[in-house]
Write a sequence for this structure.
């Protein structure tokens, strides 16, 4: 049981390019899954029965299934359907990266829906009534009062979910994408050193994890800078 | 649909076998994580001393790294780790780590970090008077924990425990990447040999969604039982 620093140093470029893929997947999914989740959260909270049902089913499926299964379903499963394989969609779905982004965006947005719903419901009724009393239209109340407040309330939960989701992207190696975990695995199969590549990759993950945590904490402070300590 | 039949004609029994393995993996992992997490919580309970920092370091490592990586670490290097841990005691063993064992160990250690934090918070939120009353009545320590503090802490920790259980259940899917023939691996085998991936992966997806949604009514029962001593505000 020993750590081979020379091996870790020699393989740093491979690991770092894997880490780049991990970051690329993470931030692409956050950029797509966030707005998508916001959109579906409106459906989930809608007074329209059908829309609300769709939102509930969306959350149950996207949150209830492991992202690995969503990934297999989209990467391997959709290719079986003629509609996908023979149309223009195939241009997109033949790429592992595209499938990864779709699968993880579905998963991530499922969580965002519930976080946004919780945040929206936590906005005090008095605040909304005050906004309405000041003559803001329902649309203005939504965009200028409810959403900004809901985002602040949901930030902590979103931080937790984002960090868990970043780590869950380790599963993308299952569909041929070379992320940080896949890069570490390749080094293992070349050298049969079970510790050095995995511990080095673990350290890089740990750094990414904490960098994201600090980023979120900074954002949280910035969003709440109007709240002065008593 | 006949592809999902039981017996030699379909993959139904293989899928069920895989599902059973998935459930077993999740249950073992969660129970071990619960026991270990509880131990960590009690170990680091008092103030911000060295024990607390030790726990923070442990939690930082195991919550900062993907569980898949830990599963691989134990699967590839588990035998050597065990040998390294036992050799100071003069014990030499020859063992192979199965994917199942690596999966259980990895999930238990990772989720013990999450559960330790959760349970610690719950214990600290039990009113301090409960501890003081125990001392005043000279209740034995064993009873203090198992009869008085933990049942109350469990009520507070329950929502978090349920969330963790569902996240852990979904994380078991990753052990298939280390070669365990769980539900996902079976679905993948069936999908590969029948060229019907869509159906088999949908079946696996339905299983997970079903188990997650079945958890909720069960939890409601447990929550009602744990809350039986609580006064509720009449609305």
């Amino acid at each position: 049981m020993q750590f081979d620093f020379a091996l870790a140093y020699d393989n740093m470029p491979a690991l770092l390019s894997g880490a780049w893929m991990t970051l690329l997947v993470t931030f692409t999914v956050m950029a797509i899954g966030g707005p998508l989740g916001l959109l579906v959260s409106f459906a989930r909270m809608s007074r329209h029965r059908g829309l609300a049902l769709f939102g509930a089913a969306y959350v149950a499926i996207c949150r209830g299934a492991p992202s690995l299964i969503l990934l297999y379903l989209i990467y391997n499963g959709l290719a079986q359907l003629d509609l996908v394989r023979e149309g223009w969609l195939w241009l997109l779905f033949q790429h592992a990266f595209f499938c990864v982004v779709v699968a993880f965006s579905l998963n991530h947005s499922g969580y965002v829906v519930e976080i946004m719903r919780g945040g929206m419901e936590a906005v005090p009724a008095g605040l909304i009534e005050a906004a309405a009393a000041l003559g803001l239209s329902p649309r203005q109340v939504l965009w200028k009062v409810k959403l900004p407040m809901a985002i602040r309330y949901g930030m902590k939960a979103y931080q937790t979910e984002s960090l868990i989701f970043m780590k869950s992207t380790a599963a993308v190696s299952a569909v041929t994408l070379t992320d940080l975990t896949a890069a570490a695995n390749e080094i293992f199969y070349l050298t049969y050193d079970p510790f050095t590549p995995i511990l080095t990759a673990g350290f890089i993950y740990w750094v990414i994890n904490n960098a994201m945590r600090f980023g979120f904490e900074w954002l949280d402070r910035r969003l709440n800078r109007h709240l002065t300590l008593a | 649909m006949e592809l999902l039949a039981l017996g030699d004609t379909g993959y139904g029994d293989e899928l069920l076998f895989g599902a059973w393995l998935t459930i077993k993996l999740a249950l073992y992992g969660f129970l071990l994580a619960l026991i270990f997490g509880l131990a960590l919580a009690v170990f680091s309970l008092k103030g911000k001393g060295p024990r607390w920092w030790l726990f923070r370091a442990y939690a930082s490592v195991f919550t900062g790294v993907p569980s898949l990586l830990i599963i691989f670490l134990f699967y590839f290097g588990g035998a050597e780790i065990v040998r390294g841990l036992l050799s100071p005691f003069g014990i030499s063993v020859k063992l192979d780590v199965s994917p199942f064992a690596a999966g259980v160990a990895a999930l238990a250690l990772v989720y013990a970090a999450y559960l330790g934090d959760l349970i610690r918070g719950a214990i600290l939120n039990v009113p301090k008077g409960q501890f003081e009353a125990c001392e005043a009545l000279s209740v034995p320590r064993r009873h203090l924990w198992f009869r008085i503090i933990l049942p109350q802490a469990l009520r507070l920790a329950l929502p978090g425990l349920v969330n963790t259980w569902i996240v852990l259940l979904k994380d078991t899917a990753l052990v298939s990447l280390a070669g365990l023939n769980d539900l996902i691996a079976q679905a993948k085998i069936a999908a590969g040999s029948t060229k019907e991936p869509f159906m088999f992966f949908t079946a696996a997806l339905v299983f997970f969604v079903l188990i997650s949604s079945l958890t909720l009514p069960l939890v409601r029962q447990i929550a009602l039982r744990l809350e039986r001593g609580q006064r509720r505000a009449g609305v």
Summary: Chain A has a mean pLDDT of 90. Chain A is about 80% helix and 0% strand. Residues 12-44 of chain A form the longest helix (33 residues). Chain A touches chain B at residues 1, 60-61, 63-70, 72-73, 76-81, 164, 167-171, 173-174, 181, 184-185, 188, 194-195, 198-199, 201-202, 205-206, 209-210 (CB under 8 Å).
